[in-house]
Design goal:
One of its GO terms (biological process) is L-histidine metabolic process. It holds the Pfam family HutP. It comes from Lottiidibacillus patelloidae. The structure is a single chain. With 144 residues, the protein is an alpha+beta fold. The protein has one domain (9-19, 33-143): Hut operon regulatory protein HutP (Hut operon positive regulatory protein HutP). The protein has helices at residues 9-18, 43-56, 65-82, and strands at 32-40, 95-105, 116-126, 133-143. The chain is globular.
């Protein structure tokens, strides 16, 4: 069984993103999470898929701008890792196939620190030719 670490929001997000279909991983306490998949040659479609999943699963409130803003920055940070700092896909003839996880919670002992959000991306990136891609991983963390 995988070990959950209640003060490691990023590690827990990565663990969720790495899970195969049907595998389980329970997060600590009152943390929230969602998972999904996205494949695209357009980075804006990756962002949209993650934002949509987070909103549909109640990870962020749709009517609170700072929550969408925090999630956006966590997504962009994770995409920087996936794309090695150049958040471009189709423009430079590369595509991604990713599993993602979004985790929200307070990784601190002090409740007044508030919630944070972590976005983990795991999958493949490469030329838009099946079999020419390689693995990639990205993680972004931001305070709400």
């Amino acid at each position: 069984m995988l070990k959950v670490e209640k003060q490691r929001i990023g590690k827990n997000a990565v663990m969720l993103a790495l899970l195969e279909e049907g595998e389980e991983f329970n997060l600590p306490g009152n943390w929230q999470s969602c998972r999904g998949k996205v494949g695209s040659m357009d980075s804006h479609k990756v962002v949209a898929a993650i934002e949509t999943a987070a909103k549909k699963n109640g990870i962020i409130k749709t009517d609170v701008y700072r929550e969408s803003h925090a999630l956006y920055h966590a997504i962009m940070e994770a995409l920087h890792g996936v794309t090695r700092g150049q958040v471009q896909l189709g423009d430079v003839l590369r595509t991604v196939g990713l599993r993602f996880a979004v985790v929200r919670g307070n990784p601190y002992e002090n409740e007044q620190e508030g919630d944070w959000v972590a976005v983990a991306l795991y999958g493949t990136i490469g030329a838009p030719v099946k079999g020419l891609e390689h693995e990639t991983l990205g993680l972004g963390i931001n305070h709400m």
